[in-house]
C-alpha cells in the first residue's frame, strides 16, 4: 500500500472575491440588512433546493430581517395526494426504478394559490419575504437568495429519518423508495428550476452543515465557477458502507476505523458530489452539479456538451471488496431498454480498472462457452425463489484479476467484481441502473434481501458474450500508442460500444497532455504524488496524490503531469478518460 494523504476535502481557491462570502448567521444577516436597507418596499425571495431545513431559516434568519409579511410558498403546493396522482407514472411500483421526469416545477403548484401569494406581496408595504422550494415562482424578487443543498447531504438526512420527499410526508418510507423519488423526479425538476435562478441570484446560501451557514454573493459564485473551468480540480469524495464492502479504503484513505467496511467511494459523480469553493476565510459547499448547469460548455467542451447537454457523462468511483465479498451478479440495460423503460438517454456502460487485488482475486465476466441461455435463466429463477444457490461455476466466467488489469463491461454483459479486488470504475455516469440477477443468497445491511430484477435483466443479457468473445474483446485490450524518453502511453479501452476512451501513461518525467476540446478525467493509479501544470502558467500547479481522481475541464487545453520530489525514482501511472469523438 502507498502511504500518501488522500485529500478528502479538496478545495478550489477562488481569487478576487475574498470579501464576498460570509460565515455564520450574524455576518449573513448584517449583509442582507445592508442590502435591503436601500429600499423602503422590497421583496426578498429565498428559494430552496428540497431538503433545506426551513425551520432553521424560520428561527435564525427571517425574524432578524423584520419582514412585515412572511410567506411560505409551500402553502400553494399541491397536496400530497394530488402530487402523488400526478407523479404515479414516474414513480412506478418498483422499489428501485422509476421513470425520469420532464415536469416543470410550476406543475406542482396550484396556480390560483400562487396568484394569491403574489397579490399579498404586491399589497404589502415594507419587506416581504417569500421562501421555500419554488418561492421564485411567486415573484422574481428585488433580492434573490438561492439556498442549495448537495445530494449526498440530502441522502444523509433521509437515512437519519429527518427528511422525506418533497411534498410527500414520507420520512418513514423505505429508503430505496425515497431515493427513487428524489432521483427520478425531484432532483431533475429542481435542477431545471434552479439553473436560471443561479444565473441571476444575488446570494447563494449554504446550509449543508446545520447551525453553521455560509453565504456567497451571486457574482462571486459565478466568477468562482468560471475560474474552476480554467484549471484541474477535484470534487469532494464520499464513502459508503455496503454488504460486500472491504477494508482497503479505510486504511488507504484514513477513514473511520470503527465503520464495518467501506464499499463505495464516489469521487467523480458530479451530480451527487459536492464542490468546495474557497473565498478568503470562507468555504462554500455546493452541489458540483451547479458547475455543470452553469458552465457546461467550458467544462465539457462543445462536442461533449452538444451530445450530452448539461450532464457530466464520465463516472469514476471505487468499489472495495478487499477482505469483503462479491458484488451482486448483475447486468446493465442496453441503450434502447434504458431509453424506453426509464427515459434515460444513454446507458450504464462500465469498466473495472484494478487498482489493487488480493492474490486469488477474480472478476465474473460473460457466460461460459456453449451454455444454454434458458438453462442459466431457469437456474437464476430457481435461485431467486430460494430453491437453490445459482450455479455460477457452471454458467459464468471467473477471470483472475490483478493490479492494473482493465476489464471492459459494455451494457448487456453479465458481470460482477469478486471478493478481494479494489476496483476503480471508469464508466458512463448512470449508476443506479443495475439489474441484480443473483445476490449470493445473502441479506442487505438492513437485514432484508436486496431487490433482484431478473425480469429486467433477462431481457438485456447479450448471450454472444461467452468466454471466447470476452477474452478477445473485454480483457486487457492494451495497445501501445506512443512513447518518449521518460514516458509511454497505452490505450486500455473501452470497448467500441462504449463512448469513453482510456489511456494509461507510465512515466518517470514530465508528460504532455491536451484536453482535445473535451473534458478529461484522470486518476493517479501508481506512485505517491504528481503535479499538474500549465505550460503557459494559465493555472497554479495542482498536486495530486495516489488514487485521487481529478477533472481537467475542456477549456484548459494543454497541461503537463510530472512526478513531484516525493515520487522521484518511482514509476508513476495515470489513467485518463474522455468522450471519444475526434
Ligand atoms: O448491486 P451491487 O452489488 O451493490 O453492485 C454495485 C453497483 O454499484 C455501482 O458500482 C455503482 O453504484 C454499480 O455500477 C454497481 O453495479
UniProtKB/TrEMBL annotation:
One of its GO terms (molecular function) is isomerase activity. It comes from the Bacteria. The keyword Zinc applies. Keywords: Isomerase, Metal-binding, Zinc. PANTHER family: FRUCTOKINASE, TRANSCRIPTIONAL REPRESSOR MPRA. This is Class I mannose-6-phosphate isomerase. It comes from Pseudocitrobacter cyperus. The lineage of its organism: Bacteria, Pseudomonadati, Pseudomonadota, Gammaproteobacteria, Enterobacterales.
Amino acid at each position: 500500500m502507498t502511504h500518501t494523504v488522500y485529500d478528502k476535502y479538496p478545495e478550489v481557491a477562488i481569487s478576487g472575491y475574498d470579501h464576498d462570502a460570509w460565515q455564520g448567521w450574524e455576518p449573513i444577516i448584517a449583509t442582507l440588512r445592508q442590502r435591503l436597507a436601500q429600499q423602503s418596499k422590497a421583496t426578498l425571495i429565498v428559494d430552496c433546493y428540497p431538503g433545506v431545513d426551513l425551520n432553521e431559516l424560520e428561527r435564525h434568519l427571517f425574524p432578524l430581517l423584520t419582514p412585515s409579511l412572511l410567506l411560505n410558498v409551500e402553502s400553494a403546493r399541491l397536496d400530497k395526494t394530488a402530487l402523488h396522482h400526478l407523479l404515479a407514472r414516474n414513480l412506478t411500483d418498483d422499489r428501485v426504478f422509476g421513470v425520469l421526469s420532464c415536469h416543470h416545477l410550476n406543475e406542482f403548484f396550484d396556480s390560483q394559490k400562487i396568484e394569491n401569494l403574489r397579490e399579498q406581496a404586491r399589497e404589502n408595504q415594507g419587506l416581504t419575504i417569500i421562501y421555500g422550494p419554488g418561492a421564485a415562482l411567486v415573484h422574481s424578487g428585488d433580492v434573490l437568495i438561492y439556498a442549495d443543498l448537495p445530494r449526498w447531504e440530502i441522502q444523509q438526512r433521509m437515512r437519519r429519518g429527518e427528511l422525506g420527499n418533497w411534498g410527500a410526508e414520507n420520512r418513514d418510507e423505505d429508503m430505496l423508495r425515497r431515493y427513487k423519488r428524489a432521483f427520478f423526479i425531484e432532483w431533475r425538476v429542481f435542477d431545471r428550476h434552479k439553473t436560471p435562478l443561479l444565473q441571476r441570484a444575488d446570494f447563494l446560501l449554504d446550509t449543508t452543515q446545520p447551525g453553521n451557514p455560509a453565504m456567497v454573493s451571486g457574482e462571486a459564485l459565478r466568477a468562482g465557477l468560471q475560474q474552476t473551468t480554467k484549471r484541474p480540480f477535484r470534487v469532494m469524495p464520499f464513502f459508503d458502507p455496503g454488504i460486500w464492502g472491504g477494508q482497503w479504503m479505510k486504511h488507504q484513505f484514513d477513514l473511520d476505523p470503527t465503520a464495518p467496511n467501506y464499499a463505495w467511494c464516489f469521487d467523480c459523480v458530479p451530480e451527487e458530489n459536492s464542490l468546495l469553493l474557497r473565498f478568503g476565510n470562507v468555504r462554500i459547499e455546493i452541489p458540483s452539479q451547479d458547475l455543470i448547469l452553469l458552465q457546461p460548455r467550458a467544462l465539457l467542451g462543445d462536442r461533449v456538451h452538444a451530445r450530452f447537454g448539461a450532464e457530466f457523462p464520465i463516472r469514476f468511483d471505487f468499489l472495495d471488496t478487499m477482505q469483503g465479498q462479491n458484488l451482486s451478479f448483475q447486468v446493465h440495460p442496453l441503450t434502447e431498454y434504458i431509453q424506453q423503460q426509464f427515459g434515460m438517454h444513454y446507458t450504464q456502460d462500465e469498466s473495472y480498472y484494478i487498482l489493487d487485488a488480493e492474490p486469488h482475486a477474480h472478476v465474473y465476466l460473460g457466460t461460459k462457452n456453449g451454455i444454454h441461455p434458458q438453462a442459466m435463466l431457469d437456474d437464476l429463477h430457481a435461485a431467486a425463489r430460494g430453491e437453490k444457490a445459482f450455479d455460477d461455476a457452471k454458467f459464468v466466467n471467473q477471470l483472475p484479476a490483478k493490479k492494473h488489469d482493465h476489464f471492459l463491461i459494455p451494457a448487456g454483459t453479465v458481470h460482477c467484481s469478486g471478493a478481494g479486488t479494489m476496483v476503480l470504475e471508469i464508466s458512463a455516469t448512470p449508476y443506479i441502473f443495475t439489474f441484480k440477477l443473483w445476490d449470493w443468497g445473502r441479506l442487505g445491511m438492513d437485514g432484508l434481501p436486496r431487490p433482484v430484477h431478473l425480469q429486467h435483466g433477462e431481457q438485456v443479457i447479450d448471450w454472444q458474450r461467452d468466454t471466447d468473445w470476452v477474452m478477445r474483446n473485454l480483457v486487457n485490450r492494451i495497445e501501445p500508442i506512443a512513447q518518449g524518453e521518460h514516458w509511454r502511453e497505452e490505450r486500455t479501452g473501452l470497448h467500441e460500444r462504449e463512448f469513453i476512451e482510456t489511456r494509461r501513461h507510465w512515466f518517470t518525467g514530465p508528460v504532455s497532455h491536451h484536453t482535445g476540446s473535451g473534458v478529461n478525467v484522470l486518476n493517479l493509479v501508481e506512485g505517491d504524488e504528481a503535479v499538474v501544470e500549465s505550460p503557459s502558467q494559465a493555472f497554479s500547479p495542482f498536486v495530486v496524490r495516489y488514487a485521487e481522481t481529478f477533472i481537467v475541464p475542456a477549456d484548459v487545453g494543454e497541461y503537463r503531469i510530472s512526478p513531484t520530489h516525493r515520487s522521484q525514482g518511482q514509476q508513476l501511472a495515470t489513467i485518463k478518460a474522455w468522450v471519444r469523438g475526434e
